Amino acid sequence: MLSFLRKRKILIVSIVLAVIVVTVALRANGNGDMSTTSPRIDDLVRTVKVSGKVVPINDVSLGFEIGGTVSRVNYDVGQTVPRGAVIVELDQSSLAAELAEARAALAKIDGGGLYTTKTENARRAVVQAIAEAYTQADDAVHNRADQVFDDPRTQNPEILFAFDDITLRDSINLRRPLIEDVLADWKVLVNKGYSSYSDADLALAKSYASSVSQFLDEVARAVSKFKTSAALSQTTIDKYRADIAVGRQNLNNSMSALISEGDKLRDTLSDVPVQAARVALAESRLAKSRLVAPFTGIVSRQDAEVGETVSVGSSLVRLISESYEVETYVPEVSIAGLSVGNPAQITLDAYGSSQAFNARVSAIDPAETIRDGVSTYRVTLTFIAPDPRIRSGMTANIDIETARVSGALLIPERTVVRDGDASYVFVRVGEKNTDRRDVTLGERDSSGNVAVLSGLSEGVLVLINPPKE
Fold it and tell me: Most CB atoms closer than 10 Å: which of 37, 48, 220, 235?
């Protein structure tokens, strides 16, 4: 056997070499030829391809906020409406009369200085009521209640020891010096006069009057418990009771007047604002009797008819802008490369793939929209230039450019063989031979090409269908 092999050694080696050459040739090209391509320098461009729809940039349905009868239709379907123009009007006769009446009432109370005069008089009346209440409080304390005290205007006053309620006695004695302070502060307030009066003065006067009234109530309760003695006759007790009752009644009357004059001042001050608000309301109702174009646009729906009675909130008119944008939904797997400002090319089914319109991404919704169970993101594209051929509702085919690398050396990705982290191509040498070249690759584009960072140069011939080792 060994002898047989030695004699045929040359033949066996020849056969093995032939098989290797044939195998390499077959791997190089399954059809028997060596198809090649050359690396080229070009821009590497990645795109996202989606479909979408042309929509108006502005689109609004208009209806009345008040009911009424349509009196005029100024624009019909297809007509262009300038911003601010009235599209439809309701009958305004009753609304105009309401506004005229409100304006007349306002002029009546605010014309010729009448409002100013009424306001000044009301303020003077409040100041006078504050002074009158002080006078009655001073009289009730100093001239009437103090009769039943020893040393009433000192820091240690004592109500007459003519009743047994110790708790009430202590409360009255403690309160009397405080009432003296209240009356002193009240007198300062009265001396301010009309010129420096403020709303806070009325509140202070009410609080002062309330404090004095509470004090007089306690004194009246104490006097009602007085008992006769050798030093205190029933006649004197009855006089005390009568004097204090009069003082309390006078103070209560002046407090009522104080409240009344304060209310009158408040009402007077509110007369003009309230009537002005009525005028504003009438003006608003009159304005709501007109459907006004919020932007320059085209009437795409007009359902209003003259003589028709319309209800609140019913949609009558649709207005769309003369400028359009494209709305699309990009799946989450493709959204990562998108950003506002990305350029795009759009073709419309109505005009075929040969007519391209330039656009740019103008908005990307931050929140997802679920469509057919898939998370997508609403993307809006704005046309670079207006074009009369573009119409609402057209179907758009969109190529959004997400990345561009200028001057990249590109080869088809199918020319590359990958082995783990290594990548290589086969370069044709001569007519029939190939040479393996290790390459470093960069980014891929959306057309099946990949950038070569090192290992190749322009002019070489790279096998399109390389052998797989």
Answer: 48
pLDDT tens-digit readout, 213-238: 999 999 999 999 999 999 999 999 99
DSSP assignment of 375-398:
EEEEEEEEESS--TT--TT-EEEE
Residue 334: both structure tokens together: 């493709």
The residue extents of the domains of the chain are: 48-58+322-403, 60-91+289-319, 109-284
Asked if the 48-58+322-403 domain carries CATH number 2.40.50.100, the reply is no
Q: CATH: 2.60.120.10, 2.40.50.100, 3.10.50.40, 2.40.50.140. Which one for 60-91+289-319? A: 2.40.50.100
Note the pLDDT tens digit of each residue in 234-253. Answer: 999 999 999 999 999 999 99
DSSP-assigned beta bridge partners for residue 45:
404
Cα dihedral 274, 277, 279, 282, rounded to 10, equals: -130
60-94 tens-digit pLDDT: 999 999 999 999 999 999 999 999 999 999 999 99
Q: Is the pLDDT of residue 21 over 80?
A: no
Structural contact between residues 311 and 148, judged by C-beta atoms closer than 8 angstroms: no
Three-state secondary structure of 173-192: HHHHHHHHHHHHHHHHHHHH
10 Å CB burial of residue 13 (0-12, 13-18, 19+) is exposed
CB-based contact 354:344 (threshold 8 Å): no
CA–CA separation, 467 vs 128, rounded Å?
112
d(CA 349, CA 357): 12
